[in-house]
Amino acid sequence: MKNQLSAVVPGVFTNGLSLQQLVNRFVSSSQEMANRNNVIVVNELPGDLIITADENKVVPVIVELLTAVVLNGKNTNIHVSADRYRDIVILNIQDRNNNNGYALAFSIMSVEQQAAATGGSLTIDGKQKKVATISFSFPIYLQQTA
Fold this sequence. Notes:
This protein is α+β, with helices and mostly antiparallel strands. The protein contains 6 helices and 7 strands, in the order αβααββαββααββ. The chain has helices at residues 2-8, 19-29, 31-36, 55-72, 101-109, 112-117; strands at residues 17-18, 39-43, 50-51, 76-85, 88-95, 121-125, 132-139.
């Protein structure tokens, strides 16, 4: 998964990070993996959703979550969207044909600590249902570290 991160994020974002561009890069770099599992990633993120959070913390979490969903998905559409509430972004990754939510939940467990390090949180809803949604909430602005 680390190789995928370097393919998705080749450089540093100086004026903030477009979540739409990040997901587009992920989709391009993971096309072979998605095709193998018959997975289509639908990027519903607005182009103007720019974050200035610590990209060294936020980007790896997002990439790991997307990778886990694509790897665990079979014959499905995965929709990626986000809501912004003042200083917080909630990124939603929704598998609309969830075949094994427990495997997905297990796959993202290792990312929970990384998500917390961003000042955010991670949840999964509907792991026993047809539609499973992973939500990653994190601060939109740069966190000052001492």
